[in-house]
């Protein structure tokens, strides 16, 4: 903070010591999934594109990529109701976000991803619907509150292929799309940081970037697409906009310093409004143990005081949100010796696909210190440091609800209720893994950045996590893989339409 103002509230010093100038049609800022897709799509539509990236290569992480009703869905016989999916996502954000953006996403993401499915299959990758991990096989049959569609796609390197394997599958898509963009003539300027947007009158006409040689001006005939990611790495922004994210255990965003909210600062400094919605941090209870409490399965959950405090259905953000606001920021899942049959009842499809015995997996987790085991509830309470009398009382009440078949306290569906009755008893902490904090600029239905009066700023667009107004309050897993999905959808829609001098609905852009 300087003079009592945050960087996004300050007027920037004009940069005059520019050593070089370049002109193109479109500048894309950031080579993550949204920026690379935008670059490729604009180049494919005939534009001369430069993508600037502050690091030495592209950024990609994660696995699931959502598209609604793709050709792969057709092969699987899956149909997702796009109107319902939009309604659920909008409702999840308490109607704070921009419904038109969400609807565009659910209606057009299939067609957008199909383009890349073809490209990936041509390049030798396989693609499947990932309903083994984030999306559950039959959660699309649950009621609205928990309905989760089988939307995520997973690109893989087939056995025997010479394609290079990497840890995060999303990188397969990004590197393939980047190669296509380069073949189409797009230029990627790595180790080049965008520092200031150039606004002339009511339009953004370019950007000042900095590399090892100094400042350079890039003039953009058609416009600038911000694709700088969210605010995950920016402590000051997290404190201001999303303090709950600071209570997560682990931040695996990388490379560190990538998601500093640069697009927000650059945009605000030329008059763009920040998104008015509460950011929706992506904080999952990721665990790689066999039951993965909170992620793969649902069990009674207690806080530091040994008291039940939330709905334990493994609909991801519910659990982590509750834990991060629990006293001491700690939570334990508790279950009993019938875990095998209870897990099978909760998640029959997942259970059938396991390639290890649940009993062996639980024992391994106990041996490795991931789970705590005890012969009595009192002993378990002592081992995990919660008041034994409270745990006993909590378990009594929980078991009554299970027996009645209705969780009148928190509303967990009967399928996910499992009594805690017979020794040995087990406990496992619930992790909170911060993947990213999408938060960005206020945009309209064309993903064009707007000012405080909601008027679009000519020539400035935002895609990916710097596109504000899409998610609100808490990341929904209605359509798992939506971070990537909306990055691909709007990256492609905006790249293509800007190159063709059109808005997303096909109406011409007049300058
Ligand atoms: C471990 C992990 C797992 C995940 N798993 C999934 C998943 O399975 N499904 C899913 O949908 N999402 C997942 N996510 C989230 C997803 O990866 C992000 O939402 C997605 O990367 C956002 O894409 P983006 O293009 O907006 O931003 P990013 O991928 O963050 O790219 C932004 C790029 O802009 C560059 N940049 C920033 N500022 C500047 C500047 N001033 N000048 C030049 N360049 C700049 C950055 O260096 C970066 O390369 C995961 C995230 C993590 C960390």
Task: Explain what this protein looks like in three dimensions.
- This protein is an alpha/beta fold.
- The protein has three domains: 7-13 and 27-59 and 171-282 and 439-499, FAD/NAD(P)-binding domain, CATH 3.50.50; 65-156, no CATH class; 286-431, Succinate dehydrogenase/fumarate reductase flavoprotein, catalytic domain (Flavocytochrome C3, Chain A, domain 1), CATH 3.90.700.10.
- It is 31% helix and 19% strand.
- It has helices spanning 33-44, 71-76, 82-92, 99-122, 170-183, 235-241, 262-269, 316-324, 339-346, 348-353, 358-367, 377-384, 388-404, 482-499; strands at 18-29, 49-52, 65-66, 126-129, 152-156, 187-189, 193-200, 203-211, 214-226, 250-251, 282-284, 300-302, 332-335, 371-374, 425-429, 433-436, 448-450, 456-462.
- Helix 1 (33-44) packs parallel to helix 5 (170-183), helix 3 (82-92) crosses helix 4 and helix 4 packs across helix 14 (482-499).
- The longest helix has 24 residues, at 99-122.
- It starts with 17 loop residues before the first strand and ends in a 12-residue tail after the last helix.
- Flavin-adenine dinucleotide binds next to helix 1, strand 7, strand 16 and helix 14.
Total strands = 18
Bound chemical compounds: flavin-adenine dinucleotide
Supply Rg. Answer: 24 Å
The unreliable regions are none
Name of the CATH superfamily of the largest domain: FAD/NAD(P)-binding domain
Helix content: 25-40%
> Overall mean pLDDT score?
95
N-to-C span:
37 Å
Quickly count the domains. Answer: 3
CATH architecture of the largest domain: 3-Layer(bba) Sandwich
- Say what the CATH topology of the largest domain is: FAD/NAD(P)-binding domain
The helix-and-strand class reads alpha/beta
For the record, the CATH class of the largest domain is Alpha Beta
The backbone outline, from C-alpha atoms, is globular
- Summarize the main sheet: 8 strands, mixed
Give the count of helical stretches.
14
Proportion of residues in extended strands? 15-25%
């Amino acid at each position: 903070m300087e003079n009592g103002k945050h960087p996004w509230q300050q007027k920037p010093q004009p940069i005059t010591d520019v050593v070089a100038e370049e002109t193109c049609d479109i500048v894309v800022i950031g080579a993550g999934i949204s920026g690379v897709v935008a670059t490729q799509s604009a180049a494919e539509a005939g534009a001369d594109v430069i993508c600037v990236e502050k690091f030495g290569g592209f950024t990609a992480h994660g696995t699931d990529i959502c598209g609604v009703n793709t050709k792969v869905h057709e092969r699987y016989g899956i149909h997702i109701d796009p109107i319902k999916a939009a309604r659920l996502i909008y409702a999840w954000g308490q109607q704070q976000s921009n419904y038109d953006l969400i609807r565009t996403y659910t209606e057009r993401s299939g067609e957008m991803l199909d383009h890349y499915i073809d490209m990936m299959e041509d390049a030798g990758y396989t693609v499947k619907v990932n309903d083994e991990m984030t999306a559950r096989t039959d959660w699309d049959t649950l009621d609205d509150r928990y309905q989760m569609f089988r939307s995520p796609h997973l690109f893989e390197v087939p056995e025997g292929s010479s394609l290079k394997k990497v840890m995060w599958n999303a990188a397969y898509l990004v590197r393939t799309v980047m190669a296509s963009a380069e073949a189409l003539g797009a230029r990627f300027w790595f180790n080049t940081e965008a520092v200031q947007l150039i606004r002339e009158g009511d339009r953004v006409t370019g950007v000042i970037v900095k590399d090892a040689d100094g400042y350079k001006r890039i003039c953009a005939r058609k416009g600038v697409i911000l694709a700088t990611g969210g605010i995950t790495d920016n402590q000051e922004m997290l404190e201001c906009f999303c303090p709950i994210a600071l209570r997560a255990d682990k931040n695996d965003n990388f490379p560190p310093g990538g998601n500093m909210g640069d697009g927000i600062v650059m945009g605000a400094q030329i008059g763009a409004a920040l998104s008015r919605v509460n950011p929706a941090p992506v904080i999952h209870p990721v665990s790689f143990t066999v039951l993965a409490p909170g992620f793969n399965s649902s069990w009674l959950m207690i806080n530091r005081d040994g008291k039940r405090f939330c709905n334990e259905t493994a609909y991801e953000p519910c659990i982590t949100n509750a834990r991060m606001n629990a006293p001491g920021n700690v939570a334990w899942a508790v279950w009993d010796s019938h875990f095998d049959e209870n897990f099978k009842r909760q998640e029959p499809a997942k259970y059938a696909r396991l390639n290890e015995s649940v009993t062996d997996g639980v024992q391994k987790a106990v041996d490795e210190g991931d789970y705590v085991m005890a012969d009595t509830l009192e002993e378990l309470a002592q081992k995990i440091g919660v008041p034994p009398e409270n745990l006993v009382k909590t378990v009594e009440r929980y078991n009554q609800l299970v027996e009645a078949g209705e969780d009148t306290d928190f509303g967990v569906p009967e399928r996910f209720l499992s009594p805690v009755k017979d020794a040995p008893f087990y406990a496992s902490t619930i992790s909170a893994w911060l993947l990213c904090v999408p938060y960005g600029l206020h945009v309209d239905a064309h993903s064009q950045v707007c000012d405080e009066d909601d008027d679009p700023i000519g020539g400035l667009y935002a895609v990916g996590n710097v596109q504000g107004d899409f998610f609100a309050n808490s990341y929904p897993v209605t359509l798992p893989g939506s971070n990537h999905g909306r990055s691909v959808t709007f990256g492609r829609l905006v790249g293509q339409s800007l190159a063709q001098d059109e808005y997303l609905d096909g109406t011409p852009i007049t300058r």
